[in-house]
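anyone seen this seq b4? input:
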Amino acid sequence: MHRGAQRTRLSYIHTLGALIAFFGGIFALHAQDRPSITLSSNATSIWEAGVAQGFTKGTFDLNLSGGAGIGVEILGGRHAHDWGMGSLEFGWIVSQTRGQEHWYRGNWEVLMEAFGGAQYHPSDAYFVGGGPHLRYDFAPGHGLVPFAEFGAGLTSTTIRDGDLSTPFEFNLSAGIGLHAFVSDNVALTFQCRLIHMSNAGIDVPNQGVNTVNLIFGATWFF
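predicted toks r here
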């Protein structure tokens, strides 16, 4: 990639990072002043004590999201791969609230994800995949619930471009996100996630594909 294009891409990434930090600050300030969400009788079971004070063990959630991936040339990748994608996640809270009275108070969650999308740079291609994720949902005590997660799985793809060589690839992901609750059990969900694809040396080339994905959607807890 030419230096000018690299500088442009870095500028995009820096701008997106600044926007994430800016809106994160707005959410934090908003959370300090916002009134508590009133729980209705049919939604109290998803919380141990109150909104964002920890989920009840056994709670399920369903998320539908979409967004864009910005390619980054790291971990051996030769090209920046840009795409649009959508995902469907089903989650299960598997622990009671941990770390009571500590900043890291929260719950462990196991999720299964199915995703798919289309690459538009440096060539047209598709990908579909999925796999399990492990997530930690923090419990700050207001209507904003941050989380961190990582996962792995399998992907079918036509992406090549000198970075991939097989129709089936492994995927690894790690990211952070935020649930902004708009009702007792419905939240707008924002995620920033790094996705890596490679075939673990099964065939060459195996430089790998890496993207920073900004994803937005809605989550229903039940």
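Residues 4 and 10 are 10 Å apart (CA to CA). Residues 3-221 form a domain with the Porin fold (CATH 2.40.160.20). kinda curious what u guys think
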